[in-house]
Amino acid sequence: VIIPLYNKARYITAAVESVLAQTFTDFEVIVVDDGSSDDGAELVEAITDPRVRLVRQANAGVSAARNHAISLARGEWVAFLDADDWHHPRYLVTLVDVQNAWPQADTVAADFVPLAHAEGLWPPCWPVIKNFPDVELITDLPSRWMAGPCFFTSSVTVKTAQLQKMQPCFPVGESCGEDLDLWFRLAEHSPIALARTPLAAYRLETEGCLTASHQTTTLQPFMQRMQARALSGCLSAGQSRSLLRLVAQFKVTFARKAIASGNRLEGLCWLLKGHYVVQSKRWWLTGVMVLFFPGHLIKA
Predict the structure, then answer these.
(1) Cα dihedral sign for 143, 259, 212, 152?
(2) Over the stretch 36-95, which tens digit does the pLDDT of each residue have?
(3) What pLDDT sits at residue 212?
């Protein structure tokens, strides 16, 4: 279980304790302190469980911290956990069961519970997990993602060998969409097995960009790389189409945001750039918005 830590002293103890409370006990916890200026690293050092390991590095960003932890990982799988999130006590054992049931999947994930920052330092009342969860085998992640985000960083585990082949896994210097960048590249190699039960809690207001398209009106680097891969000829025709449609949906979102801010010309430009989804109702409705809707009535 790898945890990047940067100035999250308020939350880090609860995050680590959520791992130590797991019913599956054969794990290591690697906390990489990314040059924090608070006492979060000292709090980790005070934890006496020998499975917890603290590594310090000069501040280089969350991507560098995760890459460093991956390079040190000794387990067969890497589970990601951010310093202000939590794992359900049966998170690891459930994902191990899913891994065993779907060995073709190099990535295994779970649903999550979103929490507002104001909801306290401790996780919600977790659901009681009695039976093996329903599992969705995702073979086309871009299409699945267009229906809505179905997992996030702290609810993902990946085979260590696959990650180490892809190093640097996370683009260094990026902190928005850097996780999505990796999930989509992993999905191009093997299916993702998704346990349809909430096994992680996600603190909305201290995390980065779960849905990065809603945080900006510029094509982020990870979106540019998606588009470049789709056009490079290195993917199957189906994979390329799905990626181009996903990037086009981001552009349609940018079009709506531009219209909402009163810039119809910019909105039209983004809409035309999203032509790979010209057959969708959302594209045509956005076209109507460009022409007729008052900006204050538009939601991205």
Answers:
(1) negative
(2) 999 999 999 999 999 999 999 999 999 999 999 999 999 999 999 999 999 999 999 999
(3) 46
pLDDT < 50 regions, the chain:
207-214
Residues contacting 7, CB < 8 A, separation 6+ = 36, 37, 38, 40
User: What are the b/e assignments for 66-94, b being 16+ CB within 10 Å?
Assistant: bbbbbeebeeebbbbbbbbbbbbbbbbbb
- Which uninterrupted H or E stretch holds 56? strand 52-57
Given the DSSP bridges, would you call strands 192-203 and 29-34 parallel, antiparallel or unpaired?
A: unpaired
Q: How many helices (H) and strands (E) does the chain have?
A: 11, 9
Integer-rounded Cα Rg, in Å, for the chain is 20
Is 246 within 8 Å of 145 (Cβ atoms)?
yes
CA 244 to chain centre: 19
CA–CA dist 180, 246 (Å, integer): 12
> Scanning the structure block, which residue is given the tokens 């999203």?
274
Q: Which of 57, 28, 33 is nearest to 44 (CA)?
A: 33
Cα 147 from Cα 38, distance rounded (Å): 39
pTM of the model: 0.89
- The alpha carbon torsion through 176, 183, 30, 81 (nearest 10 deg) reads 70
What are 202's strand-pairing partners? Answer: 114
CA distances to 22, 130, 223, 250, 255 from 275, in Å = 47, 46, 16, 11, 12
Query: Which residues make Cβ contacts (< 8 Å) with residue 11, sequence separation at least 6?
Result: 83, 84, 121, 203, 206
pLDDT for position 187: 97
Q: Exposed (0-12), middle (13-18) or buried (19+): which is 9, by Cβ within 10 Å?
A: middle
